[in-house]
Amino acid sequence: MPEHFDTDVAIIGYGPTGLVGALSLATMGTSVIAFERDHDIYARARAVTVNDWTMRIFQDLGIDERIEKVIEPQSQLRWKTYDGREILRAQQPPSALGTRNTKPRFFSIYQPRMEAELRRCAEELDGIEVRYGAEVIGVEQDDTGVTITARDRTTGAETMTRARYALAADGGSSPTRRLLDIPMLGDTDPQLWIVIDCRVKRWWPDRDLLTFWSDKERPVVDIALSAGNHRWEIPLKPGETEDDFTTPEQVWPLLKAMGVTPEDVEIHQHAFYRHHVRAAETWRQGRIFLAGDAAHLMPPWAGAGMQSGMRDAHNLAWKLSRVLRDELDVAMLDTYEAERRPNVEMFTQIAVQFGRVIKQQVSPEELEAMKAVPENTVTPYEEPMMAPPVLVAGWLRGEIADASIVGRMIPQPTVADTTGRIARLDELIGSEFVLLGADVDPRSLLDAEEKAEWDALGARYLTVRPKTAYTRGADELVDLEGVLLGWLARYGVRAIALRPDKFVAASDKAGLTVPAL
């Protein structure tokens, strides 16, 4: 008799990482039971931004337009001193990944509001069951599945749930990680910070610019959130403690130092925290995976902490769903940490470096070096935080370098199909494996064995034509903006193989054979 499972995947923790995991799995037909110890969304706005990569994930889930209604575009960020001297400013160019019409790269969010919309999206999907008020107190696994023991925080009743796999997205203090005895490696900065969230009462000059107040003693993050909210993050000086800032009256002098008055904002809430640079020793133990803060913690300066968790969940979900459907070998799950850890480490180091600038811990020479543009690059140079994402390891075939297209996320221009339907690229190629040829049928570049391997993955084969040419068959796209053909030509390739997450897995330059596991 087949073994009984209550669900395909158990998700422990239902914050942004758990939510994106549940949405990603459910949209691919994988059943989910999520355990969340609290009934309500955490009231404090921890994350402050999402970017075009995260919005493309939302697009893949079919919810990007809904999320855009509760967030706001962000165009510039700057570093300045208390005397008004501007150290550095970054103008964010339009997104190459595409979102909607304006194509911003970054958005300001108010996390509780965005999270509430994510929950509403999940409620509308079949295959997601959420058990609020359920605290996971035990996880055990064997060769075929995971058993989750949870206790109802109201009644004390305990339940046991059987799943094929489990995803622990239960935060930096992750009880699951402790139950698995996985060490968290790294450091915590002893510096205590106060986070002040306010409701905006009136506009003030340049309120919409994300501003880092650079100062050795009192550096500040000053950021407009969506839905009429604003935040300041400020370090306490030596000798100051939480007891010195228990009331709004005690907090106000910190804001007034930057020219903010009660006429501008109303203090909504404030809290204290410390910065962490930590990562779990391993992100997987058997059939249980760690994601988000349960797997890694970084300072807030790059705005990538929450987003990294969402990307973890999405990366794992498309692989896990296909493994569960026997479409991919189980060895594909080994690529999860291999692909995600380097990216998280990159953003962590960017955050650390930004923090040094804000705290005036870099010399003028270091600052100039940070602004320097590398020479002789194939890819137009962009600051790492703003550049389109690149994988440096994992399920890839071919060289990973500036001159290589392998590992890069494909841009998302507006394209057309042979019948004249015009849409963003992802809407026409879907969320499967796709081979794209530059004015050539990619099938013509494959031998019989290679095509059989891609066919086994359910791959589509599409020819990209210039808009000045006729299409010749049903399996074709028209490059209306010249972006795709120009991008392929820049790297000297005739065809690429795309993964479901829109990263290039292989090209004809290094061979279009399905990447090895």
TrEMBL record:
The keyword Protease does not apply. One of its GO terms (biological process) is 3-(3-hydroxy)phenylpropionate catabolic process. The keyword Oxidoreductase applies. One of its GO terms (molecular function) is FAD binding. It comes from the Bacteria. Residues 6-349 form the FAD-binding domain. This is 3-(3-hydroxy-phenyl)propionate hydroxylase.
